[in-house]
Task: structure prediction
Amino acid sequence: MGWTMRLATAALFLGLTMVVTGDEIKNGVCIYDALPDNDAVLCKGLEVFYPELGNLGCMIVPECNLYRQKITQWPAPIVKFPGALEGATYILVMVDPDAPSRSFPKYRFWRHWLVTDIKGSDLKKGKILGQELSAYQPPSPPEESGFHRYQFFVYLQPEMAISLLPKENKTRGSWNMDKFLNRFHLSEPEASTQFTTQNYQDSPSFVALSGGENIKTKDNSRKR
Ligand SMILES: *[C@@H]1O[C@H](CO)[C@@H](O)[C@H](O)[C@H]1NC(C)=O
Result:
């Protein structure tokens, strides 16, 4: 069977399994859960839209429909700040504070996306047009590293050019975001949100499934 066929079969099978376990699919609809309260504090006025899923702000990416796999491939989301001021300019930051894991984040922060010079009128509509200092990199949490938070912040941009130091530009990991913010006198974000996801191969239904036919193609050698 080709990879696509196997995926299709897997998707079908996953769907069935989850109806049985009643885990996330109810009446054929993929239900997704909100973040727990301690993680929801970051959800302030920002919306992040991915294909199929809609606004993921304050949500846990569901495992049904292979969403945890799809999000590692989708292009940049629509990021909307309805409260943006028409005449203002903004900076967008997307980071993972849980690199390589939430329990041992020695590479905090992982910079997934950094865009400056975004017009308020665009941000209001969800159009992220500006200077891309770090190109969008989709969430791709490593296997068995638990749930990662993907955080989005928008800051009012002062009237000065914003740039990364050559050292900061060299690598995405271990980014000292506070230092960056201090350098440009940025303090509180105007809006923020986050969602969480984990490696799709760590989802309970995926594990159950790969106990039978192994649909992992990247790493067939790992034993569970
Ligand atoms: C380094 O800068 C270039 C040009 O602005 C950008 O496209 C690239 O994504 C940056 N690299 C990192 C790791 O941020």
The chain has seven helices and ten strands. Confidence is low (pLDDT under 50) at residues 1-23, 212-224. The pocket of 2-acetamido-2-deoxy-beta-D-glucopyranose is lined by residues 133-135, 169, 172 (CB under 6 Å). The radius of gyration is 19 Å.
